[in-house]
Amino acid sequence: MNLGSTSGSSFSIASAGIQQSTEQVKQAAQQVVEATTARPAQGTVETTDALLKLKEGEQGVAANAKVLEASEKQIGSLLDIQA
Question: Which end of the chain is more exposed for a tag (fewer CB within 10 A), N or C?
Answer without folding.
Answer: C
